[in-house]
Amino acid sequence: MPYYFDALRQLHDDLGTAGNRREFLEVGRLAGRFPAALSNCDGVPADISVWCSNDYLGMGQHPGVLAAMRDTLTESGAGAGGSRNIAGTNAWHVRLERELAELHGKADALLFSSGYAANEGSLSVLAGRIDGCVVFSDEKNHASIIDGLRHSGAEKRIFRHNDAAHLEELIVAADPDRPKMIVTESVYSMDGDIAPLARIAAIAKRYGAMTFLDEVHAVGMYGPQGAGIAADLCIADEFTVVMGTLAKAFGTTGGYIAGPADLIDVVRGLARSFIFTTALPPALAAGALAAVRHLRGSDEERTRLRANATLMHRLLHARRIPFLSDQSHIISVLVGDDAASRRISDLLLERHGIYVQAINAPSVPQGREILRVAPGAVHSTDGVHGFVEALDSIWRELDQRRFPASRATVSTTP
């Protein structure tokens, strides 16, 4: 028996003991019918309705996106053929980067293979290559931000979540002559709350700090032409770098940053997660470009998303089912117990064909387990009512009201 077998087996056992073993529901997306889907549990197919997808606007099945991908697949083939600097750059990459720069009012943009790679690669360069840089990062920033800053080797100061006063305290205490960078998200993926971007921008201006804004859960869905929360507040110019994804509102996959041309050129030349990976397939870039262009010219999807989220907020309030924030389309129902959240998720699927994922540690802290609900533009009004009725019936049956409500906080202040 190899010497490492016992150690691997112990790691596997520890994963199960900690409740961190991952089990995945096989979901067969049906183009043209989403959120309807097929699940495959123990080899038995079943009709389900998906309520936790990040394809918030349904662009992953939009006819224009699918047509662009089909046409480009026939024209260019399946893959890019290499990294961006070794035979992998296609006209669709260039067009998409230009479109994204225009969307955000920036001089240039750069594509990555994923949003994770965009954050990790960009921040490892921007924080790590600026001599003496000290970074101020929100405590609930995404793992990709945390990893990028860790790999940068830069000195970090962590401010309390969405606490602009604490951010300013930390900046005031830092050496005034050192370069500074503030890193925040706009919409937070697990709580669904929104950062106080106007206050953060004002602090950055006051102390001469560079700003890096992750708008992953906002691009396409908020602001003029879907440019994000900062654009919605008319302060997009006050953020140095905007980071976004193609994998959520735009319905495909990939990540990007947009910012000043010199800055983008530095990241292009130094970011390992950009240099040492194969470029996005041309068909995927073409589909993403079709999605970006459609959403720049259409408010219909954003209007439906907002209406469904507002309706679900109201219905959950009426039934006294606690959730963390009513500021966005991400509605995190607070269960506060790992076993209970899994049980509710299982019963919704078994009895009602409703799939919503239970979220546990390390994605959220222990004792803050949630059902992460995402009513999207593709859901119907009747569907929202039906979802809340099904959740309410199970919630009452399991007597969830007796312990989590006191822990719930609903924020309404941006």
UniProtKB/TrEMBL annotation:
Residues 49-391 form the Aminotransferase class I/classII large domain. InterPro entries: 4pyrrol_synth_NH2levulA_synth, Aminotransferase_I/II_large, AON_synthase_class-II, PyrdxlP-dep_Trfase, PyrdxlP-dep_Trfase_major, PyrdxlP-dep_Trfase_small. It is an enzyme of class 2 (transferase). Its EC number is 2.3.1.47. Belongs to the class-II pyridoxal-phosphate-dependent aminotransferase family. One of its GO terms (molecular function) is 5-aminolevulinate synthase activity. This is 8-amino-7-oxononanoate synthase. Coiled coil: none annotated. The keyword Acyltransferase applies. Pfam families: Aminotran_1_2. The keyword Acyltransferase applies. It catalyses: 6-carboxyhexanoyl-[ACP] + L-alanine + H(+) = (8S)-8-amino-7-oxononanoate + holo-[ACP] + CO2. Its cofactor is pyridoxal 5'-phosphate. Keywords: Acyltransferase, Transferase.
